[in-house]
Every structure is written in C-alpha cells, then in structure tokens.
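I am still getting used to backbone structure tokens and would like to learn alongside you. Would you supply a protein for us yourself, any chain you care to pick? Start from the sequence, derive the backbone structure tokens from it, and show both lines together. Go ahead whenever you are ready, and we will take it from there.
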Amino acid sequence: MITERIWRERLLAMLRWLLGIRYIKFGMVGASGTVVNIVVLYLGHEYLFQSLEGPQGKPYASLALAIAVATVNNFTWNRLWTWADRVTQAPLEAGLETPPPSSLAAQLAKYTLASLFGSGLQYVLTLWLTHSMHYMLANLIAIIIASLSNFLANDRWTFRKR
C-alpha cells in the first residue's frame, strides 16, 4: 500500500516536471495543430478545392489553408500555455496589468514570421514527398521535420525571455 502510494506520487511528480518543460508543451500544442492541419488538409483536398486539385492532384491550395489554420491554432495555444509565463511577464515589467491589443496582433505577426521557414519547409517537403507516398503521410512527415525550426524561432524571437 505504501509503495503504491510512493509510486503514484513519483509518477505525478514526473508528469508535473514534464509538463513544465517548454518543449514538451510545444510538442503537445503541435500535436493539436497537427490534427487541425490534417483535418483541414483532408477537407480542403477532398471537398473544398477538389475542382482545383482533383483527386490525384497535388494539394496546393488545401495545404496552404491547412498550414494557415494550424498556425493560428498553434499561436493561440502556445501563447496561452507554452510561453504563458513570458507573455504575462512583459506587460508587468512595463507597468501594465494586461498586454494592449496591439501587442497581440504584433505577437501574431512575429509568430507567423518566425514560423514561416517551418511552414515553407513543410509545404515544399509535403509536395516533394507526394511523389512517392500518400499526401497525408507526406504532410505528417514534413510537420515533424519542420517542428524543431518552429520551436527554436519562436522560443528565441516571438516569446523570447526579456
């Protein structure tokens, strides 16, 4: 009974520690963004842009839409959770209680610019990989490869520690 409680406490402590690691949080947000990306990509390619892309065509328009929607999703959750400590710290240091609305728009613009390299890499890799595999699998592989550059750019620039 005691050892079971000790193991449970250790497991909970380890989970709290892992959730405190920024890259783990970023990965969890990225996983939600991947789901958003894949759903939007599928709906766009199979329904919304079917006349443009065709069933065997490359997902040009739907991939661009999927990346854009996932970027907004990821920005929202990264701002609210992954880098929440840095988002609330900056206005307090400036003597404000909450960040002004203009800083939200500026931060979204920075996030988008910081993610642009990763998004471009994902777009190009997905289209290149569709020569040899299904577009959904190609997109998933490209997301995984591009995620590290997105984390580094946003950690060092968008949500940098002041």
Observations:
- The mean pLDDT is 86.
- Residues 101-129 form the longest helix (29 residues).
- The chain has one domain: 21-158.
- Residues 2 and 8 are 10 Å apart (CA to CA).
